[in-house]
Amino acid sequence: MAGHPDVHAPAFATSTGGWDGEARLFDGREWTVDSADDGHDITVSIHGMQFADGRVESRVAVGGLCPDWPISSQRARRLARVLIAAADSADSPDEMWP
């Protein structure tokens, strides 16, 4: 049998990959911490794996940070708020995602 037609994609997933045996990858919500002055945005996103039994394991990914590009304290606070929201979403996706 190809895939697992009885297992619906997670409601919060923005995209899902094909089944690879007993699991498939998915992408979820993404946040952007805009840069008004230094030209590079920081992104925070949810990615994870769904198993054939319906279980979901989510992780938080951060892009756009570089040790050569320090960020202001104000932007660091915005990033901290976004990271907390993303961690909450990864832990409780059904409660955080419409």
Keywords:
2 helices, alpha+beta, 98 residues
Question: What does this protein look like?
Answer:
By secondary structure, this protein is of the alpha+beta class. It has 2 helices and 4 strands. It has helices at 73-91, 93-96; strands at residues 15-16, 23-33, 42-51, 56-63. A 4-stranded antiparallel β-sheet has the order 1-2-3-4, with helices on one face. Strand 2 (23-33) and strand 3 (42-51) form a beta hairpin. The longest helix has 19 residues, at 73-91.
How would you concisely characterize the structure shown here?
Helix content is 23%, strand content 32%. It has 98 residues and is an alpha+beta fold.
Layout of helices and strands:
Elements: E1 15-16, E2 23-33, E3 42-51, E4 56-63, H1 73-91, H2 93-96
Antiparallel strand pairs: 1-2, 2-3, 3-4
> Which structural category do the helix and sheet elements fall into?
alpha+beta
- State the helical fraction: 10-25%
The counted number of beta strands is 4
Largest beta sheet, briefly? 4 strands, antiparallel
The whole-angstrom Rg is 16 Å
Distance between the termini: 31 Å
